[in-house]
Amino acid sequence: MTGLTQTFPYRLIATDLDGTLLRRDETISARTRDALIAAQAAGAEHIVATGRSVAWTRHILDDLGYRGLAVCGQGAQLYHAGEHRLLTSVTLDRALARGVIERLEAELGPLALAANRDGLDGNVAMDERFRAAVGSGFTGRADAPFPDHAPDRGELFAEPIIKMYLQRPGMSDDDLATAAAAVAGTAVGIVVSGLGLVEMLPLGLTKATGLSLAARRLGVTAAETIAFGDMPNDIAMLRWAAHGVAMAGAHPDVKGVADEVTADNDEDGIALVIERLLRPRSVGDGGG
Prior knowledge:
Oligomer: single chain
Distance between the termini: 17 Å
Shape: globular
CATH class of the largest domain: Alpha Beta
CATH superfamily of the largest domain: HAD superfamily/HAD-like
Strand content: 25-35%
Helix content: 25-40%
Strand order of the largest sheet: 6-5-4-3-2-13-14-15
Structural class: alpha/beta
Number of helices: 8
Order of helices and strands: EEHEHEEEHEEEEHEEHEHEHEHE
Number of strands: 16
Largest sheet: 8 strands, mixed
């Protein structure tokens, strides 16, 4: 008797979380979950690649029953969800970060700042000016961590950090990122990762660097990868992958580099692509 299985053209599926895999209520639809399960049954691995640090990702992965590797903190952290173990971590030089911030404030005026601390339980500390926007990942779920408040700016730099968040009242995220990158030069990386989230990172750090490290552990290459994202911090990952997919609500710069644009994250955009790529394969007939 001939059985029926499916094939999938990629060995690795990399998905951003916010605005991509997660719906606006921070859940995954049954259809998207089923599509990922089907692709995994066909031989593909699924990796979450998020700008969130481990501490701000772990509760979501646990709720989803996710057990594999996750790229967190824009590639700064590689996390094993099944073992609740931080495998690798890259930190931002705090003295360098303070120096860049001083130059930015001399040029742009006072900034609102937050620091993402390093480690498995590294929390986000915000100064008194910083405002967490709805949809930024810092508000919403009751099981999420609660940010620390740092009335003394020195507290932001008291512990090792993986990145800084920058805000400038009166400036859009894109304008702030452009201005900050011009002032920072080659000292640090600057990227927009979400609403009200302009990030300062170690120079050269992207989701692509973290994803390439995870892929090597899995024995997979960029040529065997499809990636999904929606914000400028996903651009390097989409370029690294053989096939990059932007969500319908993605930033224009992301759509500009993507190989295709799918439906919105609330409309099963990931599932639509995976379902289209899955193909039936007859087993036991000796053919392809």
